[in-house]
Amino acid sequence: MTESLTVRDNRTGTEYEVPIVDGTIRAADIGKIKAGEDQPGLAVYDPGFVNTASCRSSITYIDGDKGILEYRGYPIEQLAASSSFLEVAYLLIHGELPTKEQYDTWVHNITYHTFVHENVKDFMQGFRYDAHPMGMLMASVGALSTFYPESRNISDADNRAIQIIRMIAKMPTLGAWSFRHAQGKPYVYPDNDLSYTANFLSMLFKMTEVKYQPDERLVKALDTLLILHADHEQNASTNAVRSVGSTQVDPYSAVSAGVAALFGPLHGGANEAVLRMLKRIGNASEIPAFIEGVKNGNERLMGFGHRVYKSYDPRAKLIKKAAEDVFEVTGTSPLLDIALELEKIALEDEYFVKRKLYPNVDFYSGLIYEALEFPPEFFTVLFAIGRTPGWLAQWLELTQDKDQKIARPKQIYTGERGLTFTPASERWA
Ligand SMILES: CC(C)(COP(=O)(O)OP(=O)(O)OC[C@H]1O[C@@H](n2cnc3c(N)ncnc32)[C@H](O)[C@@H]1OP(=O)(O)O)[C@@H](O)C(=O)NCCC(=O)NCCS
Fold first, then answer.
1. How far is residue 58's CA from residue 312's CA, in Å, rounded to a whole number?
2. Given pLDDT bands bounded at 50, 70 and 90, which one contains residue 143?
3. Distance between CA 238 and CA 391 in Å, rounded?
4. Residue 362 bears catalytic tag
5. pTM here?
6. How remote is the CA of residue 294 from the centroid of ligand 1, in Å?
7. Whose C-alpha lies nearest to ligand 1, atom 12?
8. Could you identify the atom of ligand 1 that is nearest to the CA of residue 297?
9. Residue range 203-231, pLDDT digits in tens
């Protein structure tokens, strides 16, 4: 028996039967409900898409109440413990784990596409000395579409595949150069002998040494962070990628829209905001006054709360563990003590408990990034590099989904109608 919903329109007394498929009803079926033949169909009002599914997807599963996150069915805890970022990227894009041969080819291809055209370097160097690295990343990934005009041919599977490899390969190069730029240091070319994450660290930190040798514990911690950020279903930046991608634009342009969305403080910018908040608090004795301010609505406790997770964000647990590993190498930070104390208080305080506000992925990631000597402006770039395979997997799914249409939401018009225009020359006479 098919499940359905019976709706009675009290304006007309008419009853409608609306099919329920996968726990959802189709908005188009609601649109058939009309107060009269010449009246517009009923619509749903959902600013922020709080309860609206925009697609069917088989990439990432989240159960926000239970704190579950799975990529292609594999729990995030297992992937973080035993996989690598590139293997997770393969999994997200291809839908299943690679064989040894598939993995080797994938890693080889990504490694050999890390270089960018020299002109990319030239225009990146043209940014102001204090350009925000996210602005540089957004512009330069979008600009890659001009280097690969064939990327506009999104209906060709081989073409899609090569652009995906290029983007995963080149994001660390663009990200690292945006970092070097702010420091007035020469850009470092990729070192294809190193792993993906070790090469990224090399492009960030290499100076005069012939070969950069990163601490393997830091490589592992950063790789784990990239895995934890790799996808998160229909969040704001993925929605931006899908929305822009729905116009059938090339994937570089679609991903640059994702980078733009991630830049916002309520999304990827939150870890930067967390660190600034911890520094402003400065001392554990200031925490009670700070918490009072949050409860009075003066500001938010950054790194707490999530649209989907209404229990502990599973990524936050893993990041807390990675933070401990990093601090073993770098030495601890007084800000960690403030963070731990804030978390302890917030987890017991009725205000936070009642609203189901728990630490999210950004609460501890900023501390790790700081310990690795990244400036706060750079944190979101790391998030973007991690999220790139997720954006691309979602984009790929979109391009093959027959149900998808150009994203074009409805509105409820609240403005004036039918006014008579008087030219400026008469109005200002
Ligand atoms: C992530 C976030 C945008 C989700 O927002 P949301 O699902 O729309 O939740 P709402 O804004 O409706 O908040 C629900 C209630 O909790 C409160 N709240 C939410 N996050 C809060 C926070 N971090 N600190 C204090 N109060 C918070 C709201 O004030 C609201 O309270 P009210 O019901 O008394 O008005 C929000 O929790 C937030 O701003 N967090 C801080 C920024 C952050 O860490 N972002 C990273 C996300 S990964």
1. 24
2. very high
3. 6
4. yes
5. 0.92
6. 11
7. 307
8. 29
9. 999 999 999 999 999 999 999 999 999 99
What is the amino acid identity at position 362?
D
Is residue 306 lining ligand 1, measured as CB closer than 6 Å?
yes
| C-alpha 306 to ligand 1 mean position (Å) | 7
The per-residue pLDDT for 307 is 84
- Examine the residue annotation and report whether 267 is marked as an active-site residue of this protein: yes
pLDDT at 354: 95
Atom of ligand 1 nearest to the CA of 363: 44
